[in-house]
Amino acid sequence: MPADPVADPWPAPRPPGPVDRVVSLPGSKSLTNRALVLAAIADGPSVVRRPLRSRDTLLMAAALRSLGTSIEDTDGGDGSGDWAVTPGAWDRDAAVDCGLAGTVMRFVPPVVGLARGTVGFDGDPHMRQRPVGQMLAALGALGMTIDDGGRGALPFAVHGAGAVPGGTVTIDASASSQFVSALLLAGARYDHGVDVRHVGKPVPSLPHIEMTVQMLRQRGVAVDDHDANRWAVAPGPVKAIDDDIEPDLSNAAPFLALGAATGGRVTVTGWPALTTQPGDELREILTLMGCEVTLTGGDLTVVGPEKLHGVDLDLHDVGELTPAVAALCALADSPSHLRGVAHIRGHETDRITALATELGRLGADVTEREDGLSVRPATLHGGTFRTYADHRMAHAGVILGLAVDDVLVEDIATTSKTFPDFATAWSNAVHGTTR
Ligand SMILES: O=C(O)C1=C[C@@H](OP(=O)(O)O)[C@@H](O)[C@H](O)C1
Ligand SMILES: C=C(OP(=O)(O)O)C(=O)O
């Protein structure tokens, strides 16, 4: 019988002293899933090099394959090679499992309009709670036929007619930047392109929209993002290009925290000099917390201070970093305020409530706010850190385990959403050479 991850939580390893470690990380989820979608609607075959192979990206590959795209492992399937993508005739009905991947639920429906067939979408139980209604309404306004039973949520079906008129559309994307990215990714292949105008509270995670725009431009697509809250994609082909996937800089957070929280040193290799990934912001955040941070020739090194300092941060643009940063704040010697992230209540779980609850259960002094958390210094103790099927909650749990004895992390395997065999990589990093 396999172990029950809830009944048998994972003992988070605690290093005996400051660590000195060099780590290489798997590829970026956000870059891999965009590269796959763009390759599938491109004007010829291409290769996604060093893709992330994790639950979210395997679900994306499966979704695109089910439409009729060929995605082949260039190494015969041992998991170390690239993905060769050949666009195919999208002429069939299909069923897409979104799992808990926002990128699958949001990026795939807009391209299904280009297919001929009816495609059903569903996912994990919590996926039915995650926001998508505004995006489905926008697709309707652009000329697509969606059947969501009036729920504005999973499960829903998209009826592809082989072409999408496109044009101008207004959307409230304050719940997720992925609504905008999704429309832009498909937009060049719509008859009139797409002109997306956001109306509502500020759009979160803007670097992820910049990532989308940059990847479209790299493929010869004209995008006008001159005005705030407006993105216009001109109609035309998406050029097939081979793409190298950067390491996932958001998943670097726990590994950099290993240096930060132990007063040790961790180097992450392959850090890009220029990137649209929000994880790059960790350099600034960790510096503010008292770390020494240097980027030399693609090696990012973090040296932790004797004691981390609290921070007052608006994480609106980089909300996915909140769980790791909140865990570090709970280890700091002064108060912290993390603001601007109301939208992360719609992530894999309500991350604000989950963090307040679980940090609090281990003794942290936390106040939950509508748009974030306040954390004051307190003496933490061991216990079970629940993860709510959220990979980044698991990252928060293991970070606490660096400085607190007997932290048990529930369902460590939930990290497979964006990181293959995280538990082994983490144990190796923690138990590596110590100074
Ligand atoms: O486009 C993307 O790849 C992502 C956008 C962000 O979503 P939200 O805008 O919903 O926060 C981010 O949090 C998510 O992890 C990945
Ligand atoms: C919000 C996240 O994921 P998703 O792509 O499922 O929205 C995340 O990875 O932190």
UniProtKB/TrEMBL annotation:
GO cellular component: cytoplasm
Catalytic reaction(s) noted: 3-phosphoshikimate + phosphoenolpyruvate = 5-O-(1-carboxyvinyl)-3-phosphoshikimate + phosphate
Keyword Transferase: yes
Principal subcellular localisation of the protein: cytoplasm
SUPFAM superfamilies assigned to the protein according to its UniProt record, in alphabetical order: EPT/RTPC-like
Localization per Swiss-Prot or TrEMBL: Cytoplasm
InterPro entries membership: Enolpyruvate_Tfrase_dom, Enolpyruvate_Tfrase_sf, EPSP_synthase, EPSP_synthase_CS, RNA3'P_cycl/enolpyr_Trfase_a/b
Family from the record: Belongs to the EPSP synthase family.
Name of this chain's protein: 3-phosphoshikimate 1-carboxyvinyltransferase
Gene giving rise to this polypeptide: aroA
